DNA sequence: CTGTTATGCGTAGACCATACGCAGAACTAG
DNA sequence: CTAGTTCTGCGTATGGTCTACGCATAACAG
């Protein structure tokens, strides 16, 4: 049995506890003008508007009309704020899947939900992850993902591994797609001209003797026009789901 | 036909050009005491010893007995230095696979080679990637990867997609494994105690009604002891390769 | 009214990347 | 040999970052 109550173990940072609603306001002292949710919201607003590098403690404080150091009464460090920003940025989990769908349709929906979030908030990809998820909404997402595999005969450990596999894939694909977008913006190139420019550059650099296979790819026109990123996403996801399907078939046999 | 010579297009940063050996020293002026490879080696040494955050321009300069600003004669920015550090950090590509192996054995070897590099130099995972690979050794790795799929009937575009799929998986798996290691070191916990501590924390936080599936995972003891990370790596890789196998079978039919 | 406590925030320190410009070294042309 | 040119190394300075510390003040308990 898992014990749901256990006061031992390493203490949770105060700001994380408040995210779980575990912290009541102490009776004495001035009424706080700031709150953890208000700070996190402001930080998310800054990141949405100007990207993650713009999120500095002073910028967030300015957004709230407060002084920089006022924030440190509520969050222990910038890293803690980033953790909470991720939780807020992902937003509510996609919710339980239709009971009529099979595991494959459910996982596809789950993966696309994360895909959509990452497309809308690319800065989530730039937050350095410091550990396994411990914030409420992050665990909601995990719970929903696990339920996608309800009804299969997979052992619990493999369900978890599969979830990590998929979420890793989604993040990776979003990272690559986003790099092209950010790179073209930084270079002042039309988004559609980014991959062709890359292709030209590689073609100029490589020696055909040393890089025959790469040259074949270039000549096949693979990088000439941007593929629809959604097609690329679907391709990889279907490969992974095919692999999972093979596993489920084997485990059921 | 791809044109291997094309002087148009966006110019390559000077330091990248020198990595391709395209820059001769101008005849006039004092003999440089520093060189791009020397700087990159020093930076890699710092990262190996003290991690990526320790790599500051002043620290690298100190390592070389030079002044901070001297570095900027050779690299245009810190980002440029990071790009070259990645190229050097990956080291030479694993080389051509045995012609007797099938594509699956070849790709497995290729994936493990990257896995090993990332295990040895975890800081590579923390370098923010700013665009598609343009450095010599990075392209060597890509070339070797593409050759793993020689002999299959896959279109070139799908070969590339598969490579991105696998390298993304390897990076993701390494990131997760590394987070546990870094997290335990930061928290001063025994590495083997990290996941159990995480399990206790989650068990303390979650409501059994809201998180039934997650609770089931916890009760199954999934997080109680650290699995061998290599087993976890193999599991995910085999799922992906199974998916690719299904694709190859379909394309050959 | 007094004591306690928590809040907001000002100051200051220790970093960071890097723009700019100068002193001098090494070569070429005469 | 000399003068001119060009490139290297680096000192200075600017503006940014996070955050440790401590003080004044506001709000409540008794």
Structure write-up:
By secondary structure, chain A is mostly helical. In chain A, 59% of the residues lie in helices and 0% in strands. Chain A has 10 helices and no strands. In chain A, helix 2 packs across helix 3, helix 2 packs across helix 4 and helix 7 runs antiparallel to helix 10. At the A-B interface, helix 6, helix 7, helix 8, helix 9 and helix 10 of A face helix 6, helix 7, helix 8, helix 9 and helix 10 of B. Chain A binds a DNA duplex (30 and 30 nucleotides) through loops.
* Alpha-carbon Rg of chain A, integer: 23 Å
- Most extensive protein-chain contact, per-chain counts: A-B, 85 and 85 residues
Low-confidence parts of chain A? 1-8
Query: What can be said about the biggest beta sheet of chain A?
Result: none
Terminal CA distance of chain A: 29 Å
Strand content of chain A: under 5%
Elements of chain A, N to C (H/E): HHHHHHHHHH
Specify the overall morphology of chain A: flat
Oligomer: homodimer
- The overall average pLDDT of chain A, rounded, is 91
Helix content, binned percent of chain A: 55-70%
Structural class of chain A: mainly alpha
Find the count of extended strands of chain A (DSSP E, 2+ residues).
Answer: 0
- Please work out how many helical segments of chain A DSSP would assign: 10
């Amino acid at each position: 049995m898992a014990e749901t109550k256990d006061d031992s173990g390493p203490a949770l940072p105060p700001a994380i506890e408040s995210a779980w609603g575990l912290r009541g306001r102490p009776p004495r002292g001035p009424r706080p003008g700031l709150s953890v949710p208000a700070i996190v919201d402001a930080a998310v607003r800054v990141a949405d508007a100007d990207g993650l590098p713009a999120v500095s403690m002073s910028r967030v404080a300015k957004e709230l009309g407060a002084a920089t150091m006022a924030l440190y009464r509520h969050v222990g460090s910038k890293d803690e704020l980033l953790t909470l920003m991720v939780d807020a940025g992902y937003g509510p989990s996609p919710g339980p899947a239709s009971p009529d769908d099979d595991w494959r349709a459910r996982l596809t929906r789950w993966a696309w939900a994360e895909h959509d979030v990452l497309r809308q908030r690319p800065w989530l990809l730039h937050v350095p992850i410091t550990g396994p998820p411990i914030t409420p909404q992050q665990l909601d997402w995990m719970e929903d993902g696990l339920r996608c595999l309800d009804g299969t005969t997979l052992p619990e450990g493999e369900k978890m591994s599969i979830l990590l596999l998929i979420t890793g894939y989604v993040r990776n694909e979003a990272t690559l797609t986003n790099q092209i977008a950010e790179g073209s913006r930084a270079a002042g190139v039309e988004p559609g001209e980014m991959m062709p420019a890359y292709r030209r550059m590689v073609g100029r650099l490589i020696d055909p003797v040393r890089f025959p296979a790469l040259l074949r790819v270039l000549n096949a026109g693979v990088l000439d026009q941007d593929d629809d990123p959604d097609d690329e996403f679907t391709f990889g996801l279907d490969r992974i789901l095919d692999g999972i399907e093979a596993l489920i078939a084997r485990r059921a046999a």
